[in-house]
Amino acid sequence: MCPRGARLLAGEGGLIEPTRLVCHCLLIEGAEGLVLVDTGFGEGDVRTPRQLGQPFRGLVRPRLVAGETAHAQILARGFEPGDVRHIITTHLDLDHSGGLPDFPGAEVHLLGLELSAAMKPSLRERTRYIGAHWAHNPRWVEHQPGGEEWFGFESVRILPGSDAEILMIPLPGHTRGHTGVAIRDGDGWLLHCGDAYFRDSEIRTPPSSPPGLALFEALTVIDNAKRRQNLERLRELALRHSEEVRLVCSHDPATLVEN
Question: Regarding the domain with residue range 23-248, which homologous superfamily does it belong to in the CATH classification?
Fold first, then answer.
């Protein structure tokens, strides 16, 4: 995604110069198949960009390239779309859910509040959810907050019979049912925080954020008090448990860089 306003959104560059945002998706290979965390834009978005809406396309300026979809990248790694047995969504915003139709056989895990928001959006929420992304009637699997504690956060254990240890960590605010996804990675954890924050500097001590990005976050949030509360908790997690937990967000291109 290449919105203009690099200085305001990234803290460097010209006022009308484009900057770069991404949408990080995770692919987890388990004994029973593949698990995909978020899907980004999908093949349907590439074929029919207008379904994303002119306001979004004009402001965010996504480069819809078929080779960058999760579907294409999974094929390039020698897998088939049917190998993706489960999809876990941090939330259903249009830039996170576009690839759902590319994996019609997968179970789609999400918090019940998020599914309710997408199926019955308020007037304020309507532009963020695109019905074309679930017109194929996905195999929704709703989860409710609760369960065991994970570093002081509520957690929801996903796929208890799997060899991959995956937890949903509810982080409401950006949307009603927004969640992080924690994956056991060796002796530690990787926490995909979705859109709980947009730039790595927001969870550093002291925190910082370019003014344009802070404004964008405030304009797109559904409950800013909850978002700010969870951001503070994530900042404390990053400070106190940096050796045990690695935090990444969806849109910062400088994090989760493949070696």
Answer: Ribonuclease Z/Hydroxyacylglutathione hydrolase-like (3.60.15.10)
